[in-house]
Amino acid sequence: MESDTEPSTPVSTLEATPETEYENRIANLEAAPTQSTTEYFSWQQLADISERLTGLGEQYGALTTVCTGDYVALGTERGSVVVTDYLGRVKMALGSAASAAYGAVSALAFSADHMVLVAGYAQGFVVVWDWAKGTTAAVSRPRQASDSPDAAGHPAGTAITCVGFIGASRHRYISGSGGGLVLYHHIVRRLLTTMSTQPLASDGGVLFEAAALARGTHACVTDDLGLVAILTDSSITIVKTRHGVEQQYRAGFQTAEGTRRRTVARRPYAGNVAWQSAQRIERPATTPAESDAMLPKLAYSWGAHIHILAVHLDYNVSGNGTALGSAAPRVQFERETEWTAIEDVVFCRWIDPTTLLYMTQSQRVFVFETQFAQETEISTAPPARIVGRAWVTLTTGTEAEPSYAAAMCVHRRRLFAHCGSALYVGRLLMWAERLELLATQGQLVDAIALATGFYQARTGQIVVGLPRVQRAGDAGQLRRQALVGGRLADLMRRALQSTLAADRTPRATDAEVRALATVCVQACLALSDMQILFTDVFESFASEPYRLAFLETVEPFILSGAITRVPAQMLNALIDVFGSMLSHVQRLGAVLYALDLQHGEFDIDRVLGCCRKLRLWRTFARVWLDLGDPIAPVASIIAAAAQENELLDREQLDDEAPGAVILDYLDMVMRGRSYPDGQLLKPQARAEAYSARVAQLVFPPATDDAKSTFHTLRALLAIDTERLLETLGHILNDPFTSYINLIVKPSSPQTSRDSGRALRRASQVKSLVQVVVDALHALTMAAHSHPEQNILAPRQIGLLTSFALILYATRFPLVYLTDATVSEWSDVLLTLNDTSTRVERENAFELLFKLNPPPVYADYIDRVRCAGFFRVLEHIYYTLGQFEDALRTFLDHPDFAQRRAVFAAIQDLGAASRPHATESVCRFVVSNAAELVEVDADAFVETIEAVEALDHSSVVDALNEHPQLQFSYMRALLDPAPEQHTPSDERLPPNIGLPDEQHIVVYPFQSLVPDNAQSANKFPQALHERYLELMCQYSPGAVLPYLKQHADQGVEPLRLASVQTVCVRYGVTDGLVWALVRLGDFSAALLTLLKEVDSETSRVRAAVPETSNAELTLPDGVVSDEQEIQGHAGLTDAGRERLEDHLRVAERCIGGCVDVCKAALTRLGKDTPNDASSDEAQSKYRSLVSTQLCDLWLTLLRTALSHLHATNRTLDALPDVTLSATREAWQLVSSRQRWMLQTVLDALIFAASPASSFISLRHIIQQLIVTGTPNDKAHVDIVKQSGAARSLDIAEIQHLLAVAVSAYKTEAQLMALTNVLVDYDLFTTFAQLVRSQKQGWRVPTDAQPSPALSTRHDLCCLECRTPLFADQRQEHVMAKLRGQIAQYYETSALRVLDLHIFEDRSAQWKWMKLRTASTFDPYLGSSTRQKAADQVVLFKCGHGFHQHCMPGLAHKDLASGCAPECVQCADRSTVFRTGATG
Fold it and tell me: Rounded CA gap, 290 and 220, in Å?
């Protein structure tokens, strides 16, 4: 480290420019035409300097670093530093022969007085230049590898990326290198000039930037600390350098995984740090030291995240709330703001105390106002791209964003940037400049909108040159408005003149006109100067082409309440323009309604005439009310409603209909509110006067001529009586109306006598509700007494009378009526012939009857019954003690809810302690039981249970003549939750399931349940049996759920014999099967279900569409087009649904049969004989059980097989010309029956598992194959009916086994059984057979095999008795298999060959060829190979022939597709033919 000075080589000795040269030169540049300007920012090239850059580069080297202050310092790649003024004149060139080895200048910084420079170089040197003298003040040399570890200095060859002076000092500065080392340098001048250097940070990471806090315009305690901020790739650190180095603040970067270094391999990264020094500002004092200053701030960015730290001074260093005299405050750093930019930030600097400027990696420039947390993009980039230096990447080898600190700097609110071969200066535009720029570009609308935002301080943008507004009405706002107001008014005038000029070509478009009108209205509202709007602006738009656009623009401002009053000329324009357009009529009404029309400021007749003409009745009423006349709109609107003959329902009354308007108007005004906004009228006296005047108009005192007296009221009733009464109710319920009293002056002595009270003076003071009731009484009495005058309709009389009496009953004694008046109204209620108001009249009469009870109740019974007032009649009967008649009134009531209330009344009377009432209730219940059940059976049962004096037996006996009602009652009593059952199709068989063992009574091993057995139950057994009988008649689908429910609950209330008898009598199959199973008669249960299966199978056959050949083929054998179309038509949806319906029932029946067999196995397999100790008895018992169980399964299996085989035979016998619908139907039946058979086999194989010793699967299959009948005589009828007494042929056996194999290929017992039936392995041979069709043969009974075939048992030709196929398998292998066969089956073994079946579409039958396999080969005879011309033909009847053995059959016949005929049985069902082998 060296501290001696080193002279430089000056190249210019020009005098120094004055201090004001910077401001003058910059001002001249800003006055010149700009090269790149946006709405916020302006770039200007420093032309004088830029012109000399090329020459300077040739002389000193290419430019690498720029630093600006009052002068411009340029660092070059040859190590020279050139200082110029802003005119481009070189002041000093700093450099020497020694400094040439320093490398390129990588960092520059001016001192606070701009007279000293500190420069960092690419080789690690740091030099302080006194540039005015051209000498060096200090030189810090790099640390070489040979130096000691304690040596100060940056590593040799490491570029210095940042330098800077601390505070206002020339002698204290910092330097930082890309490797993460930051050094603090201090030049000490005493007797000798010395240099001290010490490290501030050396964490081995990547140094983004280090910055020292400079001195600001205001002195602050931080100036004495020498603060330095150091930003690395892992942390931000702040240290003080004065009076010892000490860390003040440190924070790591938080990521999703915690505090760690950023992954540099992911993408280039960057970081920046910038100090804002203490500045003098004007604001209220908070502490003595910062009353007029803004303390320093630090902004730093890491990637795209920007953080601001604020300095706070803590004066209470003692911690007890008292200041310690002159002690220095403690400096603290706190996070003030955080936000994230759109991309990584590569440069950030403060341009004023509250505004931070930063640039992203795509060179987009933003400013951020910290005070309002407001971000604004001000520019994309200068005219040329800014040149960055990759010092970090070159130094550390780590990929990082280029450093722009050496190419960009901020000085006095201006941004300087080195862009290629030029220097640019940029600045934020002042607010006035922005407005002028928009105006110059012709964007006057945008200029007005922006100026309005300036005026209101609501731009949401950065604004330069205007005072800040802290709160509404402060001094800043007033100064801002004073500055902007005049400019805004001037912009409006310029825009109106240029846009709406008559000589403008082309004329302004409608969009331009509307945009201008909108911003002008907004500007005038902001200025609160409506004079400009109604004079200059409105007059400019007054011409015809623009008037409509202006008025439509002003409309939303009027509707929103921003504009409440307009001059007369604008109001007339609105009426003329909007009133002449049908589409704008409603909009005109809304505008007039929203305006505050003051008397004397508009043409009243014109406005009211317009409202009347255009039917704007709401506005019409509102204008009259504002004028102080609440009566005038009533008469006019009622007249309009009467003229239009409006009789509208509540839903039909639209908002502007006069009927709806007048009712709303009455509701508002009579409740003391303004119309139509509903606000309370002020003062109170005015509201009361308006309400009283309207009430006197609608409800005047009665006279002899009621028709003319109540003209207004009758007109209102004609509009909508119900809504008028609803409105009156709303009015009278308002507390305001209780203060309204009217002075009633009777018009005649008669009126005075009828007014209700004796008059002692000429007038009376009555409340509003009394006036309403009196008026309604007078009107209804006149209408009822003189129906010929058509004063009111009967419905109106009923509604008004009911309404008035309810008011009387609920407001008594506020409303008073004489006895004569009450009697008159009672007569009206009882004698009025109007059914539509019966409910209202009954309610009113009931209130009146209770309020004024008559002296003799019996006098009203007939009249009340004739009127249909059943509730009143009930009250009379209760009063007279006639309880039966009182209860009868409930049943006579037309309302169901009232009829159902009879049960509550019965319970109330039954709970009474009066014997007379209880006896009446019992008599009523018995005599009216049928009607009570019809009302609600469940509620009736609950009532009987609740009343102790009533019993169910008497009710059931009373219902004997009504069996269906008796069933409903008993269902509610015995089965109170029938909805839990799911009665479906009555034809569906039962799903009896497997009942619990303890509830099964088995026959014949245990005795039957005695008929007299009766379990403990709440209700008698006879009651249950009667209910079961009724259920079988009216709801047979609920029988089985009912039986199962009671069986599951434990004891049974029914005798099984009785259940069986009733179910047989009414044909309830599911209940019968359930009873038989519980009795243990499984054979009878199975027989019952199989009969249902046969019945449903017959229905299935009947549902299949049949078509004969005669229906399809014409006499000449030609098929017609229509028949051909029908032949190709498939099964219809209706036909398929009908078939599936029957098949579904059959499947349920089969499922029921399986359940019966399972139930038998469950019980019989666990039962034991009485003499269990006897082995012989035990053996006999097990044999008997096994026989019965096998017979049950055998019977079920025979039935399922017989139906499936019959269906397949029918399908095979169909002619080829059969309708496709018929064939599809039979195929559907076959597939479903196959599934039924599979279901049976599923259950059978599970029941015959090795764990069971009762069921022998081999025995059942043998019984199916051999000829014979079941052992159980009880099944003989079933066997005969199903045709199962014969033995099954091969095809049926194969159908049976194919179904079993497809589902149970892994059953070991089934595999052994199939080895008995076939002499070849089931799973190698039979697998192909399952996929074939018509694959079985039956060995002819009349064929006697030749001796040569006695051991081979091959299929033979019936003509020559020689084998059709020879078995060439090894004898020793087959001997063992035949030995196994012999022990199971004594007759001739059947052979199944491995066959492949394919279909020849040109022929009418199936063809078959032999499969070549290693175990057998096709041979003719025993040793001779079959010749090529020989063929074998097999018939489905089981007969086989060689082709040459069939007389009359030629090869051409087979080739032609004609079906040959079996010579043995004349059967044409030829199904197989073999071709020549090989």
Answer: 8
| 45 three-state secondary structure | strand
Beta-strand (E) ranges in 431-552?
none
Cα torsion for 940, 944, 949, 951, to the nearest 10°?
110
Give CA torsion, residues 108, 114, 115, 119, to 10 deg. Answer: -10
For 265-279, 927-941, 1093-1107, 1436-1450, which range has the lowest pLDDT when averaged over its residues? 1436-1450
Please choose, from the candidates 1081, 1089, 1088, 997, the residue with its C-alpha nearest in 3D space to the C-alpha of residue 1047: 997
Helix (H), strand (E) at residue 52: helix 47-60
DSSP of 611-623, one letter per residue?
HHHTT-HHHHHHH
Residue 1289 confidence (pLDDT):
54
Rounded CA separation 159/122 (Å): 4
Lowest mean per-residue pLDDT among 264-268, 310-314, 758-762, 997-1001: 997-1001
Buried b (16+ CB within 10 A) or exposed e, 311-323: bebeeeeeeeeee
- What is the Cβ-side half-sphere exposure of residue 409, based on CA atoms within 13 angstroms? 21
User: How many whole angstroms separate alpha carbon 1297 and alpha carbon 308?
Assistant: 88
d(CA 564, CA 785): 54
CA distances from 1089 to 267, 1095, 1102, 1151, 1167 (A): 82, 10, 20, 10, 25
DSSP class of residue 535 equals: I
Strand ranges of the sheet holding 227-232, from the earlier edge strand across to the other edge: 207-212, 227-232, 235-240, 246-252
Half-sphere exposure in the Cβ direction for 614 (13 Å, CA): 26
Phi-psi region of 1014 (alpha: psi -120 to 50; beta: other; left: phi over 0): beta
Provide mean pLDDT across the span 816-838: 83
* Separation CA 377–CA 367 (nearest Å): 6
- Of 1424, 1468, 1469, 1463, residue with least CA distance to 1445: 1463
Q: What is the strand order of the sheet 116-121 is part of? A: 105-110, 116-121, 126-130, 135-140
243 torsion bin: left (phi>0), alpha (psi -120 to 50), beta (else): left
- In the chain, the amino acid numbered 1035 is S
Share of the chain above pLDDT 90, in %: 16
Separation between Cα atoms, residue 35 and residue 513, nearest integer Å:
33
Question: How far apart (Å, rounded) are the C-alpha atoms in residues 1358 and 1462?
Answer: 11
Rounded to an integer, what distance in angstroms lies between the CA atom of residue 454 and that of residue 436?
14
**DSSP H/E element including 181:** strand 181-189
**pTM for this predicted structure:** 0.56
Q: How far apart are CA 1369 and CA 1414, in angstroms?
A: 9
Provide the 8-state DSSP code for 537: I
Tell me the per-residue pLDDT of 420-450, one tens digit each, with 9 for 90 and over.
788 999 888 888 888 888 888 889 999 999 9
Residue 1322 belongs to what H/E stretch? helix 1322-1330
Task: Give the residue-averaged pLDDT of 936-950.
Answer: 89
Q: Is 719 helix (H, G, I), strand (E, B) or coil?
A: helix
Strand partners, 332: 312
What's the helix, strand, coil split of the chain in %, to 5? Answer: 45, 15, 40
Q: Which two tokens stand for residue 1341?
A: 């009974």
> So what's the pLDDT on residue 1207?
85
